[in-house]
Amino acid sequence: MDLKQFLLQLRLDPSALWLIIALPLLGAFLCGVFGRMLGRANVYLVACAAVAGSFLLSLSAFLSVSPLEAAQAVTMENAFSSGTIRYAFGYDFGTWFSAGTFRVNFGLMVDHLSGTLLLVITGVGFLIHLYSTSYMSHDDGYWRYFAYLNLFVAAMLTLVLADNLVLLFVGWEGVGMASYLLIGFWYSDTAKAWAGRKAFVTNRIGDFAFLIATFLIVLLVSAFNTQATAANFSMVGGNPEAAQVRYREGLQMKGPVAFQGLETMANALHVTPEKAQGGVNLQTPISEGPLEGRTFGGVLTVALLLFLLGAAGKSAQFPLYVWLPDAMAGPTPVSALIHAATMVTAGVYLFSRMSYLLVLSPTAMVTVAIIGTITSLLAALIAFAQDDIKKVLAYSTVSQLGIMFMGVGMGIFWAAVLHLVTHAFFKACLFLGAGSVMHGNADETDIKKLGGVRHEMKQTWFTFLVATLAITGIVPLSGFFSKDAIYHGIHHNHLHGYEWASSVIYYMGLLIAASTAFYMSRVYLLTFEGKRSPEAKIPHAHESDWRMTTPLWVLAILSVVALFQALPLMPGRGGVMQPVMENFLGPVFSSAERIAARGGEVKLDHSVPSIIDYLKAWLVALAGGAAAGFMYLKFFPSRAGQPAPAFARSVRRFTQNKFYVDEAYEFLVIRPVKNVSAILYKLVDTLLIDTVAVRGTAWVTARLGSALRYVQTGDAQAYAAVMALALLGGAVYALILVMK
Amino acid sequence: MSFFDTHLLNLVVYLPLLFAALVWMLPGAERGQIRTITFIGMMVDAVFGVWAYLRFDPSGAEFQLEYRTRWLEQLGVSYHIGADGLAISLLLLTVFLGPLVVMASQTYITERVKEFHLALLVLQTVMLGALVSLDVLLFYIFWEAMLIPMYLLVGVWGAEDRQMAAVKFFLYTLAGSLLMLVAIVAIYFISSTPGNRSFDYATIFNNLSTAHSQIAACTGTGGDCSTLPGMAGILYRWGPWLFAAFAIAFAIKVPMWPVHTWLPDAHVQAPVAGSMILAGVMLKMGTFGFWRFAIPFFPSAAHQARPLLATLAVIGIVYGALMCLAQRDIKKLIAYSSVSHLGYCMLGILALTAEGATGSAYQMLNHGVSTGALFLLFGFLYERRHTRLMSDYGGIAKVVPVYTASFLIITFSSVAVPGTNGFVGEFLVLLGTFKSSLGLGFGAFATLGVILGAAYMLWMVQKVFFGPLTHRENQGLTDLNLREFATVAPFLVLVLVMGLMPQPFLDRINPSTERFLQRAELGIPGSQVRPSDVQISVMGLPPAGLAAAPNAPTPGPLADRR
């Protein structure tokens, strides 16, 4: 049996999908509960084996949805329409909870998008587990560390496998929780523990928006279900009446938040009233319920903007990016896995998953793109002046995620996903490389105090160089192609009403590319080139062992070979060759394409970048790198000893302090909330309610009682006097009445 | 027709009392025996309670496991008990907490051990009794009787300032209850004619429902409703007042903002058992009262007061959470978090949507589990260090790892991380609020609690467990021992089970929710709900001189449709 035959036979039964999540979960349980009993070597074995097993299962799931021969393509029944979903399979494990008309199922689904992410998560995840076995070899909390890491992998897999929004949210918050635990892993350091809390609470702000967005979607679906006519379902395929019945059955079976249902709804929603023939379109007002009077399109846009805030929390976008740089308090492999390769890309995944909703709202799309641009530029500028190697990489991650958001926002989904994948490779490689440098230099993270490491750490140096070239976008590494695919798409896609965005964001993108090249070259040059800094903690660095270098090599190789996915090798529409990744993700984004083509709100372009485009991007990257080279190899060394001009110092201080964004939040949000709660507690709770109202009542009662005490003295003479006086008074009154 | 068909609920309710008699006969010096007998009693009760829960048929009649017999006939009272979906769920929670409370107090209580356990057992009986009473006067008796053992628990075995807290708790609650008593008597006279008067829940409700549909029809047309004849006219005029009397009594118990200030004091001073029962069961009596009595009895008044009550609930959520951020005392923080969580329960009920009400009922269970566990865990820490201030701890995670892990899991449940029980309840409540006719603002503000909840809980965890060890005294803290871990473990298991498999619990709540909603809908002006749709059918009184016999539950109009 040759390899091809073997791979063809490797097929995961859909009902076994839960195993992909269960394995790391079991690993987390074993390591967490029995870790200390098992001992170090067994914990390593359990944790790595769990992720490796998950990787093999993921591989088999991936091969099932993307078979080597077209005839073997799996299809999956669509619960919401009579059509089938090609190149996907899934399994519904029954109800999670239901009340009223709402229902959520434990439904898992693998298609080309989640299949790709499965491989990235478990593949890179395994490499990082392997790396960690060496990196954490001196830490006593190893069992805790691996339990958390396995827990994270399980949560992340839940996130990408979920076939509905609420189950996705389980993974979404689950990764946040694991991230909280891992950032604060060295909890006896107060700053590190606070960083964990900051991450969790900032993420919660995003989750707040995510929850509200989910509720709006539920309301929207129910409004659509009541108001939609057969005219809507004529676009879903088959007999319209039957399609509507089928949709309602789907709602009953899988609830309103299932992605399949949302896709069917997006397909059935008309964009403009002209073509709607009385069916629901984006301008139709909702007729009843709490959203009465608001239009479908308006509610959808609001929901997507709230999802954007949610994604900004998880994917560290403006204005919620502030937690990510602090998250570097965690162990370096954690930064590589969670804060570079997987968790922070969840926002990109979310929008790619719901691409069909996104293309219905150009306003939401352009906002996503603008937020991405602002974040990316801001982070790149902050990265210029950071001296901590992990902080630079953290800001670079924020910046790269911004680029992915730009891509998603401008509708070039496949390229955003491709950049997600390539970024996972080269950024994980960079972080692990940084970890290796720290490991070999007594945990020194200040790049000013390193230098010249290339001679002592040859393997780390070479892989770091490859990854740096990839992220700066030098031909022929994968980063170049994926970033350029995004930029090309941004330039050529057009959003109705926001045509200016295409070029503005494109040129901003070029600026970001140049900045990326600059700060990455700076990090590389200061760390690996030149002479060893006299301030270094130890005189000689040492190379790390094989468990740390193997992942570096694998990731470096992957960041080179991943480039093939951007090459136009596959036959596309109209005989034009299509990039491999675009072709591969075609089925996932087909609804988005169809809706865009139908409505004219968004114009999606499918051309392939020309040599000129490539050349432009290449020159930009080269210019950034060359500038850094000039500054740090020639300019600064030649001026050593001379004081820098005042303006340069103040700019540097301003940048180094991250534009004082954290301070602004502290001043504008955190302190007010704290002060308001303290004031409310002192004023309203303690004083007004408890003292004035509650104790006041008691006080008045007591005073009243003691005042009335004097009435009951038991003195017969006094009683008689009162009686006599009362009698007299009565008599006088009677007399007056008579006299009148 | 076995003994258990008729007497299962009686058994669950009075078993603790039986064991209380046993304990009473033991000499006070036999502490070990007293503890063991109490524990066995609670365990046996829990077994029967779970059995009752399993026997409850979600698709069956509204009130199940009924028992009714003649009692104080001259007043129109009968001894009538039975459980619907909500009551049986809260009953399960109560019997679940029972044995754990005893285990938690094993070393905590060293003074007056016999009296303490007597109080626990009596409290268990009256709480269960209040949940299952189907006679309003019987309910009131149990409701008031709850105060006494709780007052003793706080006042005798509490911390340094216990007298003040106990008196405050007692007077606060009593003030509300007396108002309710007035309303109960008034409703007794209004709901029927002389000679037919009855305190029976179903009779009162059925009699009132006709009048309510008349009011709804009248307010729907916008006419002058004060001239309505008979009961409808009286209800139209006095309904809001009577509702207010009920609502104040229950709102104090919940506690809703701004009548919540007894709670932090009572919690802070109460011993671990008192806090657990208070948070676990007693607060739910307030929400249960709204669900069972206040809203179904006065739907139109409830409908008028809904925006106000919902506003108070939302204020409670946000305000309670903000209060937590201003605390230095751990127990006070947990108490204020209860105010916030109970705000969700109230909001869910007031949303009057299936999702909201079901979520609210589930949130009641969740809060009992997670906040009960928080008080339990803190109680262990308090036993070791005798301080409640956050600043006296810090960095103890290294010293007590198992304790820390348990506390973290419960914390995640309390901040409603998906996968734990808290998420399902909170999600359903918020979804229900968004779906309701209250308006989106209520939902949006209530959702703020999600952020604040994480902020204050993790802040507390941070202060207590993380960072460097700041106090030398904490160096010698011992981790959970076997007994303590065995007490915590059921909570940890339940957090995950209720988070991942909520449907068996929700299945029992859902039918109750739908009946509740329909009854509440009767109050909406122009409501189309007919009185015959919402009638409650219960077993009749057994013929005089005969022992009570359960008739097969007569399927009512609601039961027919499912």
From TrEMBL, chain A:
Protein name: NADH dehydrogenase
Tagged with keyword Transmembrane helix: yes
Record keyword Transferase present: no
Cell compartments where the protein resides: Endomembrane system; Membrane
InterPro entries cross-referenced by the UniProt entry: ND/Mrp_TM, NU5C-like, Proton_antipo_N
Keywords carried by this UniProt record: Membrane, Transmembrane, Transmembrane helix
Chain segments annotated as transmembrane: 16-35, 42-63, 112-131, 143-162, 168-187, 208-225, 295-313, 334-352, 364-385, 392-414, 420-440, 461-481, 504-525, 546-567, 614-633, 718-739
Gene Ontology process terms (BP): ATP synthesis coupled electron transport; electron transport coupled proton transport
Domain of life: Bacteria
Annotated membrane topology: Multi-pass membrane protein
Coiled-coil positions: none
Residue stretches making up the NADH-Ubiquinone oxidoreductase (complex I) chain 5 N-terminal domain: 96-146
MF terms in GO: NADH dehydrogenase (ubiquinone) activity; NADH dehydrogenase activity
Residue ranges constituting the NADH:quinone oxidoreductase/Mrp antiporter transmembrane domain according to the UniProt record: 162-225, 300-491
One annotated Gene Ontology cellular component of this protein: endomembrane system
Automatic annotation (TrEMBL), chain B:
Transmembrane segments: 6-25, 37-56, 76-104, 140-157, 169-190, 238-259, 271-295, 307-326, 333-352, 364-383, 395-417, 437-459, 480-501
Gene Ontology CC: endomembrane system; membrane
Keyword set includes Translocase: yes
Top-level division of the source organism's lineage: Bacteria
Domain NADH:ubiquinone oxidoreductase chain 4 N-terminal, residue spans: 76-128
Single GO molecular function: ubiquinone binding
One Pfam family per UniProt: Proton_antipo_M
Keywords, alphabetical: Membrane, NAD, Translocase, Transmembrane, Transmembrane helix
Subcellular localization: Endomembrane system; Membrane
NADH:quinone oxidoreductase/Mrp antiporter transmembrane domain location: 133-448
Bilayer topology: Multi-pass membrane protein
Name under which the protein is recorded: NADH dehydrogenase
Organism this protein belongs to: Archangium violaceum Cb vi76
Organism phylogeny: Bacteria, Pseudomonadati, Myxococcota, Myxococcia, Myxococcales
